[in-house]
Amino acid sequence: ERVALREKRPGIWRDITWSDYLENTEMVAFALAALGVGPGDRVAIQAENRPEWLYVDVGSNMLRAVIVGFYPTNPVAEIRYLLTDSGTKVLVAEDQEQVDKALEVIDDVESLEWVVYLDSRGLADYDDPRLLSLDEAIAKGAELRAQDPDLLARREAEKTSSDLVTLIYTSGTTGPPKGAMLSADNIAFGTDVFAEEGGMFGDKGMTHDDVLVSYLPLSHVLERGVTTWGGLRNGTIIHFAEWIDTVVADLAEVQPTVLVAVPRIWEKIQANVAIKMANASRLKRFTYGIARTLGDRAAKDRIARGGAHTPLSRVLTFLAWLIAGRKLRRLLGLAKVRMALSGAAPISTDVLTFFLSLGILIHEAYGMTENTAVATANRPGRVKLGTVGEVQPQIELRLDEKTGEVLTRHRGTFLGYWNRPDATAEAVSEDGWLHTGDVGEWVDGTHVKIVDRIKDIIITAGGKNISPSEIENAIKASPYVREAVVIGDQRPYLTAIIGIEFDTVADWAARRRIEYTTYRDLSTKPETIELIAGVVRDVNT
Fold first, then answer.
1. pLDDT band, very low/low/confident/very high, at 17 (cuts 50, 70, 90)
2. C-alpha torsion 265→271→276→279, nearest 10
3. How far does CA 482 lie from the centroid of its chain?
4. Secondary element (H or E) of residue 191
5. Residue 254: how many CA atoms within 13 Å on its side-chain side?
6. Which of 29, 78, 108, 189 is most buried as measured by Cβ atoms within 10 A of its Cβ?
7. Of 346, 294, 293, 338, the residue nearest 319 (C-alpha)
8. In a 3-state reduction of DSSP, which class is residue 219?
9. Using 50, 70 and 90 to split pLDDT, how confident is the model at 32?
10. CB-CB contact of 180 with 369 (8 Å)
11. Rounded to whole angstroms, what are the CA distances from 60 to 16, 89, 115?
């Protein structure tokens, strides 16, 4: 009867116990079985983060079926490709928007037999016989359960560690997306390593006392590993935000103990602080300035000691917390965070230092879909900012002597790409080494630093090799910059396309009484161009 999940609907947090979780998942499993789903069949889901995502995910696995996650933002053309390539039999769609995409392509996808929707708003007049609500599917499942109550027990007895559990499609930046196949054994290994006792989450690892907020897309291996698989393994309490736009407010309400984020989220939080301080009273700005000065001094001491406190840093951190940090951390939802993690992309050391000045030590980790998201991680007391940490237990990692490419080998190495033996052979060597495509280097012989993707390395006309991500991350550390893309391959010098952080720059413009109409208008204002030019000058310096 302990709480497993909490969902905010509408405006109220509702408890879902572990027994509720099990019963709901079994109902969905029987519903899918009633629609003809069996071992090896593919079930796709296209929805925002919500409990039903987990019910469909785990329910499919109860049937030994394979779950495929789609991003809610996937356009129609990609949905057609993903459904066809995976051979999906049942698609679970969140709402009218996703149903419309599915119905537009359903006649083109030979394998797709059913579309099940979660939110019925706007769908009353839809009459396609292949379309039904989750409640209608569950009613079919209840009939099957009455006729064959031992179905799930039989499927459980048939399970093996080599069962294919999920297809996770890569971004497809170098061609059509490829479905990475992860087995039950891959996931068991990855989840154990990620939350091991004595690892990056402390002596006890992650436990049922930990509170998390699920907001990164569940179709991504990182969030899936934390929310679905990690939640089951560690017994944590997962909160589902009401809406993606309410995440910051929800974090403040929930006050999670573990916060896993991608760099963009950490950068956004930092930018929000910059806006709030810019609009604060003179007294508040002065108080915050004192706290930041103390926090920065404490951060400098901790960085030199691998993140561990010195007597001085403890005193300085406490004073900074007392003056301003206590209230600021509570407003940001960081008051109770004992472990902060950043993954999936490189993060600027300026951002890491900012949070450390607030007393939040962000641990960078490294992994990818193809190795079940585990390879390296920074550990408490042994953190080196700008690196992705040390090699995790039971994992082999080496750098290619010629190219510097990071190679890993362990139980979490994926089964291969769905229907792509050629791509699988390129990714995994005959002796089991996974070619990650990332260039790395050793720092002090113990920690790994990711330089960039091999395919992203720029070679200028003068023959100089440059990692664009380091420059891009330095530019994006500014609260005024949302995105930066450095260009210069086969050119004499580097240039960049820079997208402004609209909220921050709009606030900056308003305080200077600079009039504008649209994003484009604000971006092209001479004052804005000079503001961003100043950011570039600082980075160049």
1. very high
2. -160
3. 18
4. helix 184-194
5. 32
6. 29
7. 294
8. coil
9. very high
10. yes
11. 20, 12, 15
